[in-house]
Design goal:
By secondary structure, the protein is mainly beta. It is built from 2 helices and 17 strands. β12 (about 155-165) and β13 (about 170-180) form a beta hairpin. This is YD repeat-containing protein.
Length: about 240
């Protein structure tokens, strides 16, 4: 589910400024078998690469490259609930900066606030809604919120976002289906008022109203290649070397 939340955030980023994002791997217990992931994004004019080192199935450090040129190095520090509490940023001049990620929990250990986002949960202890500080303080007149519905396997089946564009309320819905490894097969998008598709993003690909994906996997159900299928043609979006 984590990687899907990142996908949903991509649409949030297109709609409006969102909080700084923490990189996460998709949920799979087999990550604990591996120590390194090299992910490449071969689409567009720029060639991006991210090299991760893993510890106990979570990202420990990562470096980002553009056309093989190092752009930044990062390290995560985790709290007792396995959420990132600090991000150490190391620039190309070896200068470091520590960014604190303030997170609050309820008595059950569920995250209820992180950065400027609040979380509420359903009876299955799944995130039911995320709201920005601005949305809550304005009683739903500014900022953004996202509501989630789940399938019987715990995957997000529907995400409904409310945001504001030039003070006008915008509702965007995404509906998802999944393959046997738990990765997204299809996304269907709708919006009120109706948007013009594709949605153009900054620093990434545009988003179509209806999208279909295919994957190549290793023996542990971890994808090594991810494709967008468009008009019967497979377009490589990401490839990963996992070791």
């Amino acid at each position: 589910m984590k990687n899907l939340l990142l996908s949903i955030t991509a649409l949030l980023t297109i709609c409006f400024s969102s909080k700084a994002q923490i990189k996460e791997l998709e949920k799979n217990p087999n990550w604990k078998k591996y120590t390194t992931v090299i992910e490449k994004t071969p689409y567009g004019k720029d060639y991006w690469k991210t090299e991760y080192t893993l510890k106990d199935g979570q990202i420990d450090t990562f470096k980002t490259f553009s056309k093989e040129e190092l752009r930044g190095s990062f390290k995560y520090v985790y709290d007792q609930h396995a959420n990132v509490s600090q991000m150490i940023v190391i620039d190309t001049d070896k200068k470091t900066k520590t960014v604190d990620i303030e997170t609050k929990y309820n008595s059950e250990g569920l995250k209820i606030k992180s950065q400027n986002t609040k979380y509420s949960y359903n009876q299955n202890k799944q995130i039911a809604k995320e709201t920005s500080k601005e949305f809550e303080e304005s009683i739903g007149k500014e900022g953004w919120s996202v509501s989630y519905q789940y399938d019987d396997k715990g995957n997000i089946a529907r995400a409904e976002r409310t945001s504001f564009i030039k003070n006008n309320r915008q509702i965007d819905v995404e509906e998802f289906t999944y393959d046997s490894c738990g990765n997204v097969l299809t996304i269907d998008r709708s919006s009120t008022p109706t948007r013009k598709y594709p949605l153009i993003g900054i620093g990434g690909r545009s988003l179509d109203q209806h999208e279909t994906f295919e994957y190549e996997y290793n023996d542990d159900c971890l994808w090594t290649k991810k494709y967008l299928v468009k008009k019967g043609k497979k377009i490589l979006l990401f490839e990963r070397e996992i070791k």
